[in-house]
């Protein structure tokens, strides 16, 4: 029967929900394959490292074109392990970005080194090499031992610039590749660019475990050997401790799951690229796009820099009315997220670094303007249309 009440339709009440991410859609087709892989581990009872992890490490290293992959218990631990294995510690300073997840900086502190922050580029949100050079040429330059760029949102940092800077100043390069499985920079995969790299397999990452897991990659035999030793309490021989390491081993069930998902990750990343391209087209067709880097009345879209292969861990737009837009989307049951609302230099826990409001204007502005929209390989076109229509309605 037709509604004859003449009430105008409330779009918020009738909206089709769009999740920020839906891992169940990934699990469904893999259900049996994953159960079989888990069963093999349960039958073998190899729960810590062992064959399931070794098999994943081997396959992962081959995929990335890197000599060594060392599985560990999280991306945070992988960052610490990469730094410690590269012999970065007390007395050393490491330059990184204020616009990242907390672990990019806290891992430097955990390694006993001092984080120095430099501002970001407004279009990619990645660490700006020009800002890094300014610090290197300043009074703290002599203490700097490494740079830790983050391949934020799935796009590699400006590696030609970092390679050049590292050679010039004799520095190590540690990649935070937590969000960038499968990304590349001029044909070289994230994880194979620096002296060492850290990956996270946290469930929301492009390549994800069923819990916490991470990995260090490196082309250096020495760094790999140290990372393997440090992830097991500094043991080279059982119960002989050469250094104070930590327990940061990957467990066998995660290794088995990751080996299965490794077979699909290239396809998933390709689908993410398709989703990103479709957002671009839909936003342009709706006439909402501004040239950027900064928004005025509309939105600025994320860019893929020439020479990089972006894997779209996140699709992050900029708008001056970010908080209002997010509330509007939430009312319509459309997922969104803010990565990151507070830059690291303004975090209470990092007060002792001595930065304040105004220290990194680009990172602070980004923190006010960014909004990550739903993106995952299985996101449907009609769901994307719902997202774009809602944003068009908000901006109209
Ligand atoms: C850029 C970045 N670095 C480090 C991490 C830490 O990874 P994990 O959560 O696996 O410890 C994450 C993920 O949360 C991240 O996004």
Instruction: Count the DSSP helices.
Output: 13
Residue ranges: pLDDT <50 for 5 or more in a row?
Answer: 1-6
Ions and ligands: pyridoxal-5'-phosphate
- Binned, the helix content reads 25-40%
Count of spatially separate domains: 2
Strand coverage percent: 5-15%
Determine the structural class based on helices, strands and strand pairing: alpha/beta
The H-level CATH homologous superfamily of the largest domain, spelled out, is Type I PLP-dependent aspartate aminotransferase-like (Major domain)
Following the backbone from N to C, one meets helices and strands in this order, namely: HHHEHEHEHEHEEEEEHEEHHEEHHEH
CATH fold category name of the largest domain: Aspartate Aminotransferase, domain 2
Instruction: Characterize the largest beta sheet: strand count, sense, and whether it forms a barrel.
Output: 7 strands, mixed
Mean pLDDT: 96
Question: What's the short story on this structure?
Answer:
The chain has helices at residues 11-14, 23-44, 50-64, 75-85, 103-110, 129-136, 159-169, 221-230, 252-262, 265-285, 322-331, 361-369, 381-395; strands spanning 68-72, 93-96, 114-117, 144-148, 172-176, 184-185, 188-189, 196-200, 214-218, 235-237, 240-241, 308-309, 315-318, 370-373.
Q: How would you summarize the topology of this molecule?
A:
Layout: H1 11-14, H2 23-44, H3 50-64, E1 68-72, H4 75-85, E2 93-96, H5 103-110, E3 114-117, H6 129-136, E4 144-148, H7 159-169, E5 172-176, E6 184-185, E7 188-189, E8 196-200, E9 214-218, H8 221-230, E10 235-237, E11 240-241, H9 252-262, H10 265-285, E12 308-309, E13 315-318, H11 322-331, H12 361-369, E14 370-373, H13 381-395
Parallel strand pairs: 2-3, 2-4, 4-5, 5-8
Antiparallel strand pairs: 1-9, 6-7, 6-12, 8-9, 10-11, 13-14
The structure holds pyridoxal-5'-phosphate.
Residues 74-76, 79, 100-101, 103-104, 150, 176, 178-179, 200, 202, 212, 214 line the site of pyridoxal-5'-phosphate.
